[in-house]
Amino acid sequence: MRSTTGRERLLWSIGLLVVLLYALIPVVWIISLSLKETADIADGNFLPTGGVSFDNYTSLFESGEFLDPLRNSIIAAAVATFLSILLAAMAAYAISRLNFPGKTLILSAALALAIFPPISVVGSLFDLWREIGLFDTLIGLIIPYMTFALPLAIYTLSAFFREIPWELEQAAQVDGATPFQAFRKIIVPLAAPGVFTAAILVFIFAWNDFLFAITLTSTDASRTVPAALAFFTGSSQFADPTGSIAAAAVVVTIPIIIMVLIFQRRIVAGLTAGAVKG
Amino acid sequence: MAGGAVSASQAGAPATRDPAAKKPRITERAKAERRLAYLLCAPAVLAMLLVTGYPVGYAIYLSLQRFDLRFPDDKEFVGLDNYVNVLTSTTWWSDFLSTAIITVASVSIELVLGMALALVMHRAIFGRGAVRASVLIPYGIVTVVAAFAWRFAFDPSTGFVAGLPLIADDAAPLTDTFGSYVVIIMTEVWKTTPFMALLLLAGLALVPDELHEAAKVDGASAVQRFFRITLPLMKPAILVALLFRTLDAFRVFDSVFILTAGANNTETVSILGFNQLINRLNLGIGSAVSVLIFLCVIIIAVAFVKGLGANTDTARGT
């Protein structure tokens, strides 16, 4: 590292502080709001100076209007992630390792889908799903999540797969490993980090969805948390839902933030994988 | 190996003129490889075609019908009537304008902030991990959650913003047009600047240090070096980041829905489509709006690629 002057360090520290504040203010604010006592919700203070309470959380989990959406969110995002990664890994393997005409066509199709506006298909899906009985079901959500995550998954995985030293597989077979052993002991451990990274990105994508969730569902049978938040009424007819919304927001945010912080290196690598080359 | 087969690398050679000399132009091994490749790609390609290609076709079909789900029996082919209706309405054009305002404003602010953030991360003296971690937080947060956080913050009854110095105590930005735009744009910028910064950071890493050193020796100032060396070399990365963010911003829906639901003249084209399709159940008009949004996205993408020379092939690393 080059030598730094005191002035440079000061400027850098200020920059660091600004970035931290920028990222954290809304997060700290929503956490603080969720911890306020009901009487203090409207006090306009940034921090819960009137006392910390977990009432918003207890009433949130007791009211039942949150548990179903939470379950739906987890199932929809997890299943869509699994399917999307499975399909994308097969395609990415072919794209990064095999020679075949039409490779660019598939990548262009994926790119086209990446910039595709989902609003252009929600009307059709709404009508089709009503016809074939997928409206207001989790499968009806999983299908578009899986598909719209494919470009992200295919690009991330092909970028990672291109870096794998595939010769090792043959080397292991020369040394007497069966093709399956070579795959399981050599290739799987090498590919796992890339697959895992792609899975995190796809999960965040599906977890974040709002448009499909409010158009293709109508009840708590399949409504996910972002959609449920928009329809929150609070624990009773007279209660202001602000506290409940804040608590629910924190519950769906904290796991993602923890995941992002633990795997930050991989996520950055995944997000920029193949994004800028030459 | 099949004896005498032409090598696979010749597969693209012009077809043989003599039909009698017809030989397999690719080896069996290459054929098997292709078969495997198609087999592996088929599920993903099928899913993409079925879930986007088919519905888009269906949306085009619906957009040519008079089709209101409340009166399903009145369904009738009406040609381009729905498009004429939409394109002659003031709603479409005012929604288009608000979408354009939000898109242009948020993407320009993001570009400047993202570049600053990328430079900060690139020149990190210490705490690089902390910066990287904190910029990823907005990326990981659900857009709806972020929008609620800002809505509560700016709402004078719950928020802390009205209590800040220099801001009127009864300031309620989400009740007027200008304030609503500011908050919507801010929410978008907050959420998506990190993505922009990461793409730009990756581009920044490609600018060779030697060029900077050489320019420094020749007496170029930091500002000169940024505008004469860094920016031109980063042009491909910047254009790709701009293309992706512009198309993403153009379909803005979540944050507007939560912050204003389209009130105060902030309705965007996606909100219009949603209202027609889902609230009014007018699938004919709604589909026409959907198809028009799709066309807008294509036009923007083509304009970037043809007009500005954004090269998505090299950029996405095929």
Short account of what is shown:
Chain A is mostly helical. Chain A has twelve helices and no strands.
* Spatial separation of the terminal alpha carbons of chain A: 25 Å
* Shape, principal axes of CA atoms of chain B: globular
So how many helices of chain A? 12
**What kind of assembly state do the chains in view correspond to?**
heterodimer
**What is the annotated CATH architecture of chain B?**
Orthogonal Bundle
Low-pLDDT regions of chain B: 1-21, 314-318
CATH hierarchy: architecture of the largest domain in chain A: Orthogonal Bundle
Average pLDDT number of chain B: 83
What is the total domain count of chain A? 2
Q: What is the residue-mean pLDDT of chain A, rounded to a whole number?
A: 86
Shape of chain A: globular
The CATH topology of the largest domain in chain A turns out to be MetI-like fold
CA radius of gyration of chain A: 23 Å
Order of helices and strands of chain B: HEEHHHHHHHHHHH
Can you tell me the number of structural domains of chain B?
1
- Which regions of chain A have little confidence, pLDDT < 50, spanning 5+ residues? none
Helix content of chain B: 55-70%
Q: How much of the residues of chain A is beta strand, in percent?
A: under 5%
Which features would summarize this protein structure in a list?
heterodimer, A: 278 residues, mainly alpha, MetI-like fold, 2 domains, B: 318 residues, two-stranded antiparallel ribbon, 12 helices, globular, disordered N terminus, disordered C terminus
Give a written overview of the molecule:
The complex is a heterodimer of chains A (278) and B (318). Chain A contains 12 helices and no strands. The model of chain A has no long low-confidence stretch (mean pLDDT 86). In chain A, helix 2 packs across helix 11, helix 3 (67-97) packs parallel to helix 6 (138-162) and helix 7 (167-174) packs antiparallel against helix 8. Chain A starts with 5 loop residues before the first helix and ends in a 6-residue tail after the last helix. Helices cover 72% and strands 0% of the residues of chain A. Chain A folds into 2 domains: 1-53, no CATH class; 58-272, MetI-like (MetI-like fold, Orthogonal Bundle). With 278 residues, chain A is an all-alpha fold. Chain B has 318 residues and is an all-alpha fold. Chain B has one domain: MetI-like fold (Orthogonal Bundle), CATH 1.10.3720.10. Helix content of chain B is 67%, strand content 1%. Chain B is built from 12 helices and 2 strands. Chain B has a two-stranded antiparallel sheet. In chain B, helix 2 crosses helix 11 (283-307), helix 3 (90-122) packs across helix 6 (177-204) and helix 5 (143-154) packs across helix 6. Classes of the chains: A mainly alpha (278), B mainly alpha (318). At the A-B interface, helix 1, helix 3, helix 4, helix 5 and helix 6 of A face helix 1, helix 4, helix 5, helix 6 and helix 8 of B.
